[in-house]
Design brief:
Blueprint lengths: L6 H7 L2 H67 L3 H28 L4 H21 L1
């Protein structure tokens, strides 16, 4: 090829194999760059999720401590107001806590049964039916 030839003439002189090779090389370079970007972003996302998980665990631990202190306060309040013995006050606190836990468990059970993405699953079902119908027509 003539190095002094205009760019349009050089491109026309390339063979099909060179064009395919250049296209594949460009595609692989593009893919390599995208995978590197994905790797960098996944490291950042992983660190972000780790920090969020640690913050969540910390919040849950402090909330559990709050609940324990609240129960101890209710125990103290029951012994102070009703002048009951410590054991009977503790039993009453435990019964109230059990009742609240059962109510929350029932509400949780009712909420978890509800599907999370009903519209998406309905679309998937329609797509599956459409694909089944198209496959049967093709046969």
């Amino acid at each position: 090829m003539d190095p002094d030839a205009p760019l349009g003439v050089q491109g026309a002189a390339q063979s099909t194999g060179d064009s395919v090779r250049n296209w594949v090389a460009s595609f692989l370079t593009y893919l390599d760059l995208r995978l590197r970007l994905l790797g960098l972003e996944s490291k950042e996302a992983g660190l972000h999720l780790l920090v969020l998980a640690l913050l969540l665990v910390g919040a849950l631990v402090f909330f559990a401590g709050f609940l324990v202190m609240l129960l101890v306060f209710f125990l103290y309040l029951l012994t102070l107001i009703f002048h009951w013995a410590w054991g009977w006050s503790a039993l009453t606190c435990a019964g109230i806590s059990l009742l609240i836990a059962i109510i929350v468990g029932i509400i949780f059970r009712l909420r978890i049964v509800k599907p999370v993405f009903p519209t998406t699953f309905a679309e998937f079902k329609r797509d599956r039916e459409w694909l089944t119908h198209k496959t049967k027509e093709a046969e």
